[in-house]
Protein: Threonylcarbamoyl-AMP synthase
Amino acid sequence: VAVPTDTLYGLACSAGCSAALDAVYRLKGRSEVKPLAVCLGRVADVYRYCQVTVPEELLKDLLPGPVTLVMERSGELNKDLNPFTPLVGIRIPDHAFMQDLAQMFGGPLALTSANLSSQTSSLNIEEFQDLWPHLSLVIDGGPIGDGQSPECRLGSTVVDLSVPGKFGIIRPGCALENTTAILQQKYGLLPSHGSCS
Structure:
């Protein structure tokens, strides 16, 4: 299904359904070595699907929000979800509908942007019209962001928190400055070697 989030329109499916995961990759023309994020409804759910090595307050400072936190995955996740990595990106959008959807679904949702791979990210449903016939449902939450500033289309800031005491910026995204300030100034984490920050 196509869903609105706090950053872009996304495609969501059950992370526990291998056929649905395959369908998302096929629909987007996405390389199977590019991971899908997992969308959850509450910070408390993160502990079920990840090995968390940061304080809970850090999670609560960044989530819900326009950030994807990458941590070591737990055995609770479907083995067919990103089988090439022991890590998983967790997303809790600051969007009431997405939080409600994830909580009502009751399990992890795989989430990625609603566009063909390598094409511009979508801020309204018309921008991914070519995908509609292949989707079970398109949920129109109206336009996302102001649509004018280029930062709008950057998507979430993706942060690797898998190494204790350090962080790595995998994708700068739309919340880089605020995220790095929280990680460095409030929690004293150090940028890892090779990080984009």
